[in-house]
Amino acid sequence: MRHRNLWGIGPSWARALRRHRVTVWVVVGTIVGFGAILIVVGPVSWLVAGDTVRDLHGKERADALNAVRQTVLTAVGGSSVLLGVGFTARSYRLSRRGQVTERFSTAIGQLASDKRAERLGAVYGLEHVMAESPQDHATVVGVLAAFVRENAGRTPLRPEPVGPDGQGAQRPLAEWGTAPAVDITAAVEVLARRPERFEARRMDLRSTELAGLPLRSFEFEAPPRLSRAFLTWADLCRADLRGADLSGAILNSADLRSANLAQARLDGAGLFKADLRDALLADTTLLGADLSGADLRDAGQLTAQQLAGAVIDDQTQLPPALADDPWVVARLADCRARRDPREAPAPTPPRPVPPPTR
Length: 358
Known about the structure:
- The protein is an all-alpha fold.
- 45% of the residues lie in helices and 0% in strands.
- It is built from nine helices and no strands.
- The protein has helices at 11-19, 21-54, 58-111, 116-132, 137-151, 182-192, 304-307, 320-323, 326-339.
- The longest helix is centred in the first third of the chain and has 54 residues, at 58-111.
């Protein structure tokens, strides 16, 4: 006895239906569409026409009913078009989202490649994903930052006895021409030119080896932006950060020796115990920057006016020419008073001396 399903159709009929399912759907769709048209031009049209058309007779009734049918068909056709547009738009969004997801997955796989060229392509692929998909912005930033930390992590300094000057072990300064690997530099550049969107979390680049990092503003359409980034104990010695936006960044204990920070923004940045020896600070903004315990000895083109807007303390090491400057003395007293209200009121900083007239 042959097996039959609930509909009473045998296996041979089921196979035939599967082979001709497109034809079956076309026939069913045609029947449904024809039935819908009959309903529209019949009961629906009479319902829309109302008693006004029913009270007419002969040719007047036929003309009025035809006008109603045309109106109803036009409305149904317009609604169908709108539904089609909505369905097409939804399909497009789903298709595009699927493409973005596929590209993201491919880039993640390439980041783990042993070939630098593939890693470089993955970095730029993630940049495109971040630009096109705001909802993936935070994810891409987190992935690229993790990639930098994983592949350019700073080696811990082995403890050594403290020297006569009170300083402990000092890491040797990187040679001129030192720079991070190409893929690491590309990842940081992509992070620095990321779209300006709300970011709930800080970018995490702590304890990274970025000596000699080239991040010059004139090579970007807008100033490279590492604002609010975690750069605690990062090695940025000899980095070229001219014009970069580091406002609000956390650079505590960072190595910025011989870094070029000319015209950079460090407003509100945390530079607690940062090493800024021989760093170039020409026209660098330091409004509200925390320089407590920072080492600014031999810092180039640092002025008292810049320090007058920063936070300094007794452990801040300054160039000898600035340590006794009236602006700096007044600022230090002001910072002391803010830390301890029992201190005497801070003296008013002197006005800047006007330039000599020619």
